[in-house]
Design goal:
This protein is α+β, with helices and mostly antiparallel strands and 163 residues long. 39% of the residues lie in helices and 19% in strands. The protein has 3 helices and 7 strands; from the N terminus they run αααβββββββ.
Length: 163
């Protein structure tokens, strides 16, 4: 009885384990999967970091528009939107991952709600070590479609493209 049980558990007397060929094939398959997945993963990481900067830019643009509408006809500085957007008075996030460089003031006409002037309203730049290469700027052009556009750069601000 004990001998039959031992044979059943040990594979009828055959040696247990994988051959060298089987192990090499598994390692090859894992290597191919890693080679394909790594660039995709790095692209997803870059997109996520850019999305984080775009979220900061979106909240700031909403705050700037709100302040400009509230001071109808008078120039409203971008810096006045910092508290509403959750930024410090220096224009940084908490913790300090992003920093805002303001452009010119924004004015909303009382009569028709037109925003002026055409300009780069602000730029959001990464300050933490893992996001220093990301820049997002909000550009306003009354004749543009849409008039306000986010432009992104993932090469430290050398090239901006619509995002």
């Amino acid at each position: 009885m004990a001998t039959a049980l031992r044979r059943l558990l040990s594979g009828n007397g055959r040696d247990q384990g994988f051959t060298l060929i089987e192990l090499l094939i598994v390692i090859l398959i894992v290597g191919i999967l890693a080679a394909v997945a790594t660039p995709l993963y790095l692209g997803y990481i870059k997109d996520a970091k850019t999305a984080e900067a775009k979220a900061v830019a979106g909240s700031l643009w909403t705050a700037v528009q709100s302040n400009a509408i509230g001071s109808c006809g008078s120039p409203s500085p971008v810096t006045s939107g910092y508290p509403k957007a959750g930024l410090s008075s220096a224009g940084t996030t908490t913790p300090p991952r992003w920093s805002v460089t303001p452009g010119g003031d924004v004015t909303v006409a009382c009569s028709d709600g037109a925003i002026s002037p055409d300009q780069t309203v602000f730029t959001v730049a990464g300050t933490a070590a893992d996001v220093t290469f990301v820049r997002v700027q909000l550009v306003y052009s009354a004749t543009g479609t849409p008039p306000s556009k986010l432009q992104c750069s993932t090469d430290s601000g050398t090239t901006f493209v619509d995002c």
